[in-house]
Design brief:
The protein is mainly alpha-helical. 56% of the residues lie in helices and 2% in strands. It has one domain. A two-stranded parallel ribbon has the order 1-2. α2 packs across α6. The longest helix has 22 residues. It is globular and about 60 Å long.
Length: 177
């Protein structure tokens, strides 16, 4: 009786032949990413904004970011976004330009962060001041995000996000996403 020939086994390509495990060759950054995924799930763009707003220097960060495009279209970004001063058309432009910047500038952190802030500040202002939802993201997800942003943001931005969360509970909500 002859033994059947077994096909040669290929070595896995994700680790060297000297590694005891496929995880031996992970970098510190890759390990950190895996830990974050395991602990919190995948990061979303809003998570980056939450981290920025939850820092001790959030006031200074916001003051700097609203001087950059796309906020430059607003004469006074703070008043326009927090005091019901911006027309819905201006808020839509801000949110749209913010989204375009986020999609087009993954390698330039300051530009990316300005786009991210514009997108979410615009969403909140449209909700708070015009009872209009400018995204196709489900209302429960946006509601939870507005509450989380309100919890970590300094005033007057926390008030903006709180008003946005309240507006999402209104029966007068208009959806334009």
């Amino acid at each position: 009786m002859t033994a059947a020939a077994t096909p040669p086994q290929e070595e896995p390509t994700n680790f060297t032949r000297f590694s005891a495990s496929p995880y031996d060759d992970l970098t510190a950054s890759q390990t950190g990413d895996l830990l974050r995924l395991g602990l919190h799930g995948p990061l979303h763009a809003a998570d980056h904004l939450i981290e920025r707003l939850d820092s001790p220097v959030a006031d200074r960060w916001i003051a700097g970011i609203i001087r950059r495009p796309p906020f430059d279209q607003l004469a006074d970004p703070v008043a326009s976004l927090t005091q019901h001063d911006a027309p819905l058309a201006d808020i839509i432009i801000l949110k749209t330009r913010g989204k375009e910047i986020v999609k087009g500038s993954p390698g330039v952190l300051e530009t990316y962060e300005a786009g991210l802030a514009a997108y979410y500040f615009g969403l909140a202002a449209a909700l708070a001041h015009h009872h209009t939802l400018l995204t196709r993201t489900p209302v429960p997800e946006i509601h939870a995000l507005m509450i989380e942003l309100a919890a970590v943001s300094p005033k007057p931005w926390s008030d903006l996000f709180t008003e946005a969360a309240i507006a999402l509970q209104s029966s007068l909500l208009s959806i334009r996403g």
